C-alpha cells in the first residue's frame, strides 16, 4: 500500500492532467449494475445474430443464430423457446430423416400475426421457409436471389405485402449482388452492376397519400471510379425503386426495374474539405408525414473518424424528381423517368425505358437537412446506429440516437438544435465484446443488444442511476427521465426536466439544493509527509477544483476520482479542503476534509524521484 501510494503521488506530481469538461464524450458511464438490464445466455457462439420484435407480447424478441431460433420472453422466462433451423426433415417414409445442416440464420421477418419468414445459409446452399410463431416450418420457399450464401454478407431485406425485397449476391463465389424482389408481384432480376457494391440498409418510403407511389429506398456503398490518389475508395448512394414496378416488356428491361434511380449522399464539412464517404449504417425514424421521416446515416472517413448526417425522405424524393441526369444533356423523355410510379410499367414508352437503362444516376447529390454538414463528428469508432423519438412533458418530442462501439458499449445521444449531447455510455455486457446486432422497441423503450453468445435487454427509461436528487436528474438531460418530486424516474406528464439546457432552476425548492457533505474528523498527518485527497467525478462534463484557504488548488483525475496532492505536509497546509464541481452554471460541493500537521515529523523521508521510478518499473514487471 505504501509503495502504491508513492507511485501514484510521483506520477501525478510529474505528469499532471487538466480536468476540463469535454462535451464530445459521454457525460456519465453506466455499467450493467447502474442500469436495469436483463440477460439471456444463448449457450453457444454465433457468427451472426438476427433480431426481430416478439409479438404480440411486449418485452420479447425472436433471435436467429447458428442453427437455432430462439423466442426470448424477458418478462416470462418460462415462455421462452428454442428451435432448430432448418427443422429435421422427412421426405419419404422409407428414408431416414435428413439432419439439419450447419446453417446460420441470415434473414428474419414477420409475415403476419401468425407467421415468420426465415432464411439461413451454410455457405453453400441457403434455405428459406415460412414458420409458425412456434418456429415450425410450414412451407419451403425458394431462397434464390433473396437469401445470402455468405453468413458475413450484410444482405439487407424487407418483407412488404407478401413480397421480399433483398439486396444479396445470387452466386456463392461471385460479386452478383443486386436488388431483387420475390413474391406475389413480378419477380425482379436486374442486371449486375459493373462496379462492386455493398448494400447497407433498406427502408420503406411511405405510405404516401397515393399508395401507388410508395417506394423502397436502398442505401449502399459503391467502389469509386475516381483514380486520384487522394480519392476515397468508396462512395455512398441511395437507390429508389417503385413498389408497383412490374419491369419492362420483353424487348427491354424485362424483369428489371424501370423505376430505379440512384443519387449520391453528401456528408462532410465542405469548407474544411473533410468528407465522410463510407456509409456504415442507417437508421430511419418514421414520421406521420412520410416526407418528414428522418434518415440517419453513420459514415466514416479515411482517418477513422465517424460522422452522422441526417436526411429526410422528402429531400431524397425531391432529388429523384427534379435533378438532371448525370451524363445526359438532351431533352428528358415524357413522362420523366422514375418520377411517377405507374400501374403497368410494361407499357412505358421505349424512350423512357432506354433512358432509365443508360442514365440511372442523378447529377444532384442528396444533402443533409438544411443543406448543412454532419450533425456530429466524433473520434469514437462507432459501428451501428438506432434512433428513437421520446415524448417529454408538455407534448414535446426529442430524438435520441443509440450508437454502438467496437468494445461492446453504447452511447446514448440527444439530438438538439445546437447539435448533440452525449448523455451516457452504457456498458450492457460484463466483458469487452463485439456487438452483433441491436433492436429498438419503440413502444416499450427497450433496446436489445446481442453479442455472439448473449442477448441483453436494456431499459432506456431506467433513470435511478443518475442520482437521488432533482439536480442529478435534470442535469442528465435524458429525455427518457424526469424528476417526480421524490426520485428520478421514467418521464411522466407532470415530471420535471430541462432536456435542452439541463438548467437546475426548474427544480425550485423541490430538490434544487444539495446538502453540503459533512466534514470528516480531523486527520493528523506527519510533518513533511505526502498525502492525497479523493473526490468522486460523477460527470465528465463538469469542471472540478479543490479549494483551501480561499485559494484554488490543482485537481488531477485518476480512476474516476479528482485527486489533490499534498507534496509536503506543514502547518501551512492545515485547514479545510473542499472539492467543488461546476456544470452548466451550477456549482456543488462534493467532498470535504480537515487536515492538521503533527508537531513533530514522523515516518520515512519521501523517496527520491529516481527511487519512485524504480519502484514503478518493478511494479509493471
TrEMBL record:
Query: What's this protein's name?
Result: Semaphorin-7A-like
Write down the Gene3D superfamilies for this protein, in alphabetical order.
Immunoglobulins (2.60.40.10), ligand-binding face of the semaphorins, domain 2 (3.30.1680.10), YVTN repeat-like/Quinoprotein amine dehydrogenase (2.130.10.10)
PROSITE patterns found in the cross-reference section: IG_LIKE, SEMA
Q: Which domain of life is it from?
A: Eukaryota
GO MF terms, alphabetically ordered:
chemorepellent activity; integrin binding; semaphorin receptor binding
Asked whether the UniProt record includes Membrane among its keywords, one would answer yes
GO terms under biological process: axon guidance; integrin-mediated signaling pathway; neural crest cell migration; positive regulation of cell migration; regulation of inflammatory response; semaphorin-plexin signaling pathway
Taxonomy of origin reads: Eukaryota, Metazoa, Chordata, Craniata, Vertebrata
Query: Which organism is this entry from?
Result: Aldrovandia affinis
